[in-house]
Design goal:
Length: 87
């Protein structure tokens, strides 16, 4: 499982700068959390806004079916979460 997580982190780190021209996610605080040993939650905080095309680009980088939620963090920023099945 840790190999899959490391691979995903590497793909996001290497590819995010290329698919995120406005740097909405690139350079933002990001955290990774394993949920019940079944999924990885990737959370970007302090995001000014995000377009559907950027979400789809991240999903392509992840390379697996995953879900994405965008929720308000403050009046000026949102939190973007991707949940990726590990199996």
């Amino acid at each position: 499982m840790s190999e899959a997580i490391n691979d995903l982190q590497r793909r996001l780190a290497d590819g995010l700068a290329k698919i995120d021209p406005h740097h909405r996610l690139f350079g933002r605080p990001v955290s990774y959390r394993v949920i019940d040993g079944q999924a990885l939650e990737v959370t970007y905080r302090d995001v000014a806004g995000i377009a559907d095309a950027e979400v789809q680009g991240v999903k392509r980088l992840i390379g697996r079916d995953c879900s994405c939620t965008v929720s308000p963090q403050t009046a000026e920023s949102v939190t973007v979460r991707f949940v990726v099945p590990l199996k």
